[in-house]
Amino acid sequence: MSNGLEAETAGISLYTPAWYDVAWGAVTLLLPLGALAVLYLVVRLAARHGSASASDGAPQPGYRRAGHPNAEAARRHGALVAGTAWVLAAVVPQVVLTVAAPFLVIAAPAYAPSGSVPASGAVLVGLAPALPGLTYLAVHAVGERTWPRAHGSVRRASLAPRSVRGVTPRWLRRITAAWAIALAATLATCAAVAQDGVRLVATVGVSVRTTSPFPGAFYGVPLAISIAVVLVGTGLVLRQVARRPAALPDDPAYDDASRLLSGHRVLRGTQLVVGWSLAGVLAVAGVALRAVELDVLGTAVLVVATLVGLASLAVALVPGRARVPTSVRLPHPGASVIGASPSLPQESA
Q1: Where are the membrane-spanning stretches (predicted)?
Q2: Which of these, 46, 159, 239, 296, has the minimum number of CB atoms within 10 Å of its CB?
Q3: Which residues have a Cβ under 8 Å from the Cβ of 249 and sit 6 or more positions away?
Q4: DSSP state of 9
């Protein structure tokens, strides 16, 4: 060793220049700060978009102070369903995995291409997004089936057909689709470069380096199936939102806004599941790339993983706001409802 800075082991230099440590220290310090800044900007932009959408409607005062009984019942029901969905989506997967984990090791078939990788690992990867996602959707499905029906002497029903697109915000559909497409592309890329579906092999100089785990087909296939099931379940729940009975049949503007708020609540959970799945895949891939000394590429992938995870979380925290054309009002001039006319439903920030 020379000057205490360089060690020689079997002719291989282990010396690391000082600027290298300083540079990585700066990256370690600035990355969380940059991620927080991006999170703040995403929340502000999404909230501004929501405010602009809400201004396109025709809110009426008195919803929370003296709302129509049917509207109040729908508001309380929707808030209860949304809160319960978040709580159970966080709790149920932990309970299920705690109980089922010992049985997965025994029941999982010899699926792994190598004895060093247990088949239960792929099962757990597939369950990671499926359990919280399907729990979240199941709560919303029950909530839609038990949605409060209109009460009164006169009831009307709109004959206008509704679609899934009509009960979900366009920007939220695009974000969810973007996460899903990016996840599919990432899994396909990792499957193409993975060795035996579980490890990454790279040639660096004259040496060949191998690392595992890597999100190849062994992990990617169960994850892709899991995400596909969550997306299909989302579509089914959104169909329930579109077809549920109206709380205020005499006020189509309020009914449309109420459905749009419910669709927002359903879809924001789905985009969080897909976004965090993408972030997890990128994070595992980034760590593997750094393990085979592809530091620059691995660090870039880790940065993207952090930003995707924070962005999807920020989108999930954006309160739902309804966008209803001002021209859509009561079906005829003489139509009326009992009690104060409610404002268009929206979540408080």
Answers
A1: 22-43, 85-111, 117-139, 175-194, 214-238, 272-291, 297-319
A2: 159
A3: 150, 155, 156, 157, 158, 255
A4: E
β-bridge partners, 6: 2
**Separation CA 291–CA 17 (nearest Å):** 19
What is the dihedral sign for C-alpha 171, 174, 180, 186? negative
- CA distance linking residue 320 with residue 47, whole number of Å: 9
Spatial distance between the Cα atoms of 25 and 170, rounded to a whole number of angstroms = 41
- How many residues belong to the chain? 349
Q: Look up tokens 């408080």; give the residue.
A: 348
207 - beta bridge partners? 204
Q: What is the pLDDT of residues 176-191, one digit of tens each?
A: 999 999 999 999 999 9
DSSP code at position 343: P
Q: Please write the tens of the pLDDT for every residue from 7-66.
A: 444 444 444 455 545 555 555 555 555 655 555 565 556 555 544 444 333 333 333 333
CA angle 284, 286, 288 (to 5 degrees): 70
DSSP states of 190-237: HHHH-BTTTBEEEEETTEEEEES---SHHHHHHHHHHHHHHHHHHHHH
Q: Which residue has the tokens 């009002």?
A: 329
Whole-structure pTM value? 0.71
